[in-house]
Amino acid sequence: PTEEAFLPEFLRDAGYVTACFGKWHLGFFRQQYLPSSRGCDVTAGLYNAQGDHFLHTIDGGYDWHVGEQPALWASGNYSGELVRDAAVSFVHAHAVEAGTQQQLQPFFMYVAFQEAHSPYQAPAEYLALYSAPPCRT
Predict the structure, then answer these.
(1) In the chain, what percentage of residues exceed pLDDT 90?
(2) Cβ 98 vs Cβ 105: under 8 Å
(3) Given a cut of 60, is residue 3 above it in pLDDT?
(4) DSSP 8-state code for residue 97
(5) CA-to-CA distance for 28 and 31, rounded, in angstroms?
């Protein structure tokens, strides 16, 4: 429900810069459900949970966004790396910005990787690290 306040809303009101990277999974079919309407200043990721980790498609649609815009350039890139890179970039940019100011503005960053959901996909070089089946006791 939109009358429920989310943590990023409280923190933004308290002077934090807020960011959300990865799966949102809390609504997307109306503006008021998007992360930017729920307190997140900076966002990148998917609105659903079980899309293709490389193509960013689910149920016939494309689902990778930066801000509120579809980021078609992300197609073909692994979601885990996209989330990682967005989060690292945010922290780096915040640190650089802080270096130009007298006082560091606090930030809150929510990072939710898609890997917890099917389809279970990963780049070949990651899968190769676990070529042997797991030992079961």
Answers:
(1) 55
(2) yes
(3) yes
(4) H
(5) 7
